[in-house]
Amino acid sequence: MTLVFDDDPITGNQQHSDHLRSRMAAMRLSFHWLGTRKSLSSEQKARAADAFDAEGKFLGANKKLVDTSDATFRQVTAIRTQATAYYKSVSLPFPEPGVRLIRHEAVESIDSAMQVYRDELVIAVQKLDQHFAQLTYEARDRLGDLFDPSDYPTSLDGAFAVEWAFPTVEAPEYLRRLNPTLYQQECQRVQSQFEEAVRMAEAAFIEELSKLIEHLSERLAGCDDGKPKIFRDSAIGNLEEFFGRFRSLNIGSNEQLDGLVDQAQQILAGVDPKSLRNRNDLRQTVSAKLSSVQASLDGLMIDRPRRNIIRGPR
Q1: How far is the CA of 87 from the CAs of 80, 211, 235, 251, 307, in angstroms?
Q2: Around Cβ 72, how many Cβ atoms within 10 Å?
Q3: pTM across the whole model
Q4: 66 has pLDDT over 70
Q5: Closest CA to 230 of 238, 239, 218
Q6: Whole-number Å distance between alpha carbons of 291 and 285
């Protein structure tokens, strides 16, 4: 792997990356999932192309095997969505594909939460399995000549799974003995990855806070037919959740960002949705203050130094 970096004016980043490295563990979440679409065969594409007087090899087409809007199937999919959302909420990004970082002290609770999702998935898949014959029968009617019974498993046992692991992202110790030079190169690569992880975490926090503030400000300042726009309690609740997650995962690598989070939290301290709906003066005050924070966040996003990781042949 070859790493190429743009000029980076930030100083002290190694200190923050070392801090991140000392308190975080790597985690990978993955899913094994039943495919719900399948490409048409060459013969089927050729038949479809005839209708448009086209050549089959220039036509891409697939068929939807089952109705994914069915309630039992949506229940299975919902568990994957929930597990993924939880995983991202308790972790920070990392430049290694498929890997994120979690706090050492949270490993046990995250592992327990994933076991709950796994158990829920098993139950949901069992319900889907009981209904799958009906979905297959319905697909036969919908697909007509495109229906192929071999596309459908006789049982969903093993067709869905949630898996997680805690891989090492450190340089392997055996390299120290076998090839000290290569070991040092790997150590430098890992150090660079954690330095990039610091930047990725900052960027993720900035982007999320910016979107949340922008949404709330737009609802507070905007009007529909001359009346204040309606906003949901979640517009504030989501920001409060962000503040908690930021305090839990932040490593203090960006003083400007820390200050803007503090500022946004102070603006909303003691402010409840009902008051914002009933008091126009409060809406205007909160909106103006949040707009100031938003402008500063925009500046942070513009000023962030670029850093490119170029992955060469492995």
Answers
A1: 10, 20, 22, 18, 26
A2: 17
A3: 0.86
A4: yes
A5: 218
A6: 10
Which residues lie across from 224 on neighbouring strands? Answer: 227
CB within 8 A of 154, min separation 6: which ones? none
- d(C-alpha 143, C-alpha 133), whole Å: 15
Q: Which amino acid is at 253?
A: S
Per-residue pLDDT of 104-145, as tens digits, reads 999 999 999 999 999 999 999 999 999 999 999 999 999 999
Q: Residue type for 284, please?
A: Q
User: Among the listed ranges 36-45, 173-182, 235-244, which one has the minimum average pLDDT value?
Assistant: 36-45
Q: Which residue has tokens 């910016």?
A: 210
DSSP string, 118-167: HHHHHHHHHHHHHHHHHHHHHHHHHHGGG--GGGS-S--TTT-EEEEE--
Measured in whole angstroms, the distance separating CA 45 from the mean position of its chain's CA atoms is 35
Give every CB contact of residue 275 below 8 A, 6+ residues apart in sequence: 282
pLDDT at 192 over 90: yes
Residue with tokens 């994933």, as numbered in its chain:
114
Half-sphere exposure in the Cβ direction for 40 (13 Å, CA): 19
Contact predicate 163/32, CB 8 Å? yes
> CA torsion angle for 96, 97, 98, 104 (degrees, to 10)?
10
Number of H helices, E strands in the chain: 10, 8
At 236-281, the pLDDT tens digits run: 999 999 999 999 999 899 999 999 999 999 999 989 888 888 888 8
Instruction: Flag whether pLDDT at 310 surpasses 70.
Output: no
